[in-house]
């Protein structure tokens, strides 16, 4: 993949919506075919890209004509989003255009640094790397380590920032002011207004998952509202 190819992928995501199509283990929709169908529906609705978890799910969307952000959640430790170089290479092998991985400063299970992981991945694969960060310091370190995209995915899930009820707009603005890499806002973006606010705060693109692709959670929101009104 050439530098022009990289720029083309980023260009397709610029100012757009990435839809995260994931289901938790044990759920009715936890099937690669189902997630592929959800991804196709999202693209029909205007998604500029999709984000999928798991090797089989990534392979199942090989026919989609939008950039695919792939990851592999594995392990029971703090670092479980594409936690090792081996995981990152497997995600790239499955066909992801962008490999998303834990972009925090926490120790990785294989003992490699984030910079070593990114460098090792690029030795074998021409892919973009998205660092899922939890703080401004994470984002600064991830940019220095060579990440192409900085995500706010882990804001509120590490000890460095509180868990907000909506998107962490403050963090988006902080990263935009301190870093040069494009930012993908992700995490607790539950309404179109949230998505617009994230973009206005400095996000290059916005990633939405639960509010679009997780029926159990969406149903619980409506159920709670109906019961409260009664």
UniProtKB/TrEMBL annotation:
Q: Which InterPro entries match?
A: Aldolase_TIM, NanE, RibuloseP-bd_barrel
Q: Which GO terms describe its biological process?
A: carbohydrate metabolic process; N-acetylmannosamine catabolic process; N-acetylneuraminate catabolic process
Please indicate if the UniProt record lists Isomerase as a keyword: yes
**Pathways per UniProt:** Amino-sugar metabolism; N-acetylneuraminate degradation; D-fructose 6-phosphate from N-acetylneuraminate: step 3/5
Cross-referenced SUPFAM superfamilies: Ribulose-phoshate binding barrel
Q: Name one GO cellular component term.
A: cytosol
Q: Which HAMAP family match?
A: ManNAc6P_epimer (MF_01235)
User: What protein name is recorded for this chain?
Assistant: Putative N-acetylmannosamine-6-phosphate 2-epimerase
Q: Which organism is it from?
A: Microbacterium allomyrinae
Lineage of source species: Bacteria, Bacillati, Actinomycetota, Actinomycetes, Micrococcales
């Amino acid at each position: 993949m050439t530098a022009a190819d990289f720029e083309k992928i980023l260009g397709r995501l610029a100012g757009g919506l990435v839809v995260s199509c994931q289901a938790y283990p044990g759920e009715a929709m936890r099937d690669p075919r189902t997630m592929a169908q959800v991804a196709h529906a999202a693209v029909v609705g205007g998604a500029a890209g999709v984000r999928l978890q798991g090797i089989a799910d990534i392979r199942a969307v090989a026919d989609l004509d939008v950039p695919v952000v792939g990851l592999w959640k594995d392990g029971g430790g703090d670092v479980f989003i594409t936690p090792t170089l081996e995981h990152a290479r497997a995600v790239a092998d499955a066909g992801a255009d962008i490999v998303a991985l834990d972009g925090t400063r926490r120790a990785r299970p294989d003992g490699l640094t984030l910079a070593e992981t990114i460098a090792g991945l690029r030795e074998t694969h021409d892919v973009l790397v998205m660092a899922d960060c939890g703080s401004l310091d994470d984002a600064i370190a991830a940019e220095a380590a060579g990440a192409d995209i900085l995500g706010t995915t882990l804001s509120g899930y590490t000890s460095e920032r509180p868990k907000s009820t909506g998107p962490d707009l403050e963090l988006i603005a902080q990263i935009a002011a301190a870093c040069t890499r494009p930012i993908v806002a992700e995490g607790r973006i539950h309404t179109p207004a949230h998505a617009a606010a994230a973009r206005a705060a400095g996000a290059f693109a916005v990633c939405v998952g639960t509010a679009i692709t997780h029926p159990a959670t969406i149903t619980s929101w409506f159920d709670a509202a109906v019961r409260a009104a009664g």
